Amino acid sequence: EIYPNPTNARISVRWNESTAFPGAVCTDAQGRVIQVLEANEFSVDLSAVPSGVYFIRLNGFNHPVKKVIRL
Fold first, then answer.
1. How far apart are CA 60 and CA 71, in angstroms?
2. Which of 13, 16, 25, 39 is deepest in the core (most CB within 10 A)?
């Protein structure tokens, strides 16, 4: 789960699986990496990027890409 979405600044990733959080990558609509989340990180700071659509992709799993809207 990604929340809050939409956001003005920071989003958090809630991991409810029985396995350890694998980390994730946040990219913009052009595929540029905004932030890489390591296994112990659960939030992304979008306050320094323009308003728009961003994506969160979990590492190493077959989970769908999550869309995030930065207001």
1. 29
2. 13
Residues with Cβ < 8 Å from 23, sequence gap 6 or more?
36, 37, 38, 39, 41, 58, 59
- Would the pLDDT of 61 be above 70? no
Residue in the block written with tokens 């308003």:
51
14 vs 2: CA distance, rounded Å? 6
pTM of the shown model? 0.85
Mean confidence (pLDDT) of the chain = 89
